[in-house]
Hints:
Oligomer: single chain
Number of strands: 2
Low-confidence stretches: 1-39
Structural class: mainly alpha
Amino acid sequence: xxxxxxxxxxxxxxxxxxxxxxxxxxxxxxxxxxxxxxxxxxxxxxxxxxxxxxxxxxxxxxxxxxxxxxxxxxxxxxxxxxxxxxxxxxxxxxxxxxxxxxxxxxxxxxxxxxxxxxxxxxxxxxxxxxxxxxxxxxxxxxxxxxxxxxxxxxxxxxxxxxxxxxxxxxxxxxxxxxxxxxxxxxxxxxxxxxxxxxxxxxxxxxxxxxxxxxxxxxxxxxxxxxxxxxxxxxxxxxxxxxxxxxxxxxxxxxxxxxxxxxxxxxxxxxxxxxxxxxxxxxxxxxxxxxxxxxxxxxxxxxxxxxxxxxxxxxxxxxxxxxxxxxxxxxxxxxxxxxxxxxxxxxxxxxxxxxxxxxxxxxxxxxxxxxxxxxxxxxxxxxxxxxxxxxxxxxxxxxxxxxxxxxxxxxxxxxxxxxxxxxxxxxxxxxxxxxxxxxxxxxxx
Length: 444
């Protein structure tokens, strides 16, 4: 007999009381006693939503592919991916539970100057289409914010999807090297199966290399799987001859690893070896590195940033009304006079005016400030890498004012900087009233 005979409690009631007391202590101390007490995790379909957002931002303009793909078909696929991402995210979050996010709020505010300027139709009906696309993009991020809690789940989705994109680039290179490295792009690597430009490929490779290196340093990835990702990505990055992506990756890693130096011995060892290797490479391979960096261009062409400076000067010198200075000309294809702007800040100024520039600058200030206030950790280091990379790339690449990979990188940084939501309070189980025998009640 296991009952409490001293108090006259029957064995079955004693066992029930003991279990109830144990459950009560578990609820009080936060100990999980069963499957029902476990907090819900991130659904696997969230990774599908993230992958669809990445597919949407691949774009429809680029090199000629082995099998010609009509641009209308590519746009149908990319826009369909965004609609599917929003629909699936809404299905996963029917109760519209979202987390407060200054980053997504600023993107929402960015819709205001975008819509005001686009309604003028100075950039054509395509401006309204791009506004709709940006609204769906931001809406999907709001729906996904429910699962932003500072963990590395979205980092792994980011790496897997972009590595799959790079896999298609490598497949195109294997099938048709001539189409993958055409003379039109100076022999630089392009997408031969899906139209991707060298800067796009370089960006994807640099980002996943940086994130994978940080995962290895944080012991969140084994070296074998990391090598499978890092080595091919570095090879593709080298074949693109993309200077911005390379410099952004190196500086981003320096800043990210520097944030871990005081708390991680692995980060200190890696940083030391990286400095030694960099010094040896700079001394022993200086001519080869210089030739790769110049890409066969003259010093004058390099100084003018491959002709970008001329477009920038013309854009700034163009006459504008006060309304156009404030709200911009409307969302366009990030070009001026038929030439690409290739600068995020000038592209935002051209399309969304000074209000857009202010909001985009606020994004970096908010994310950077939050990253500096967070204690050293692997998610913080990944966020620092992404923020610094996007800040560096913004000088020679456009995309911060519209749905683009750069906004996805910054969204990933925002998810890494989010504070984990407190666990839901477990209801305290009702303790059954203890049975008092009649003889004990009579005795009272």
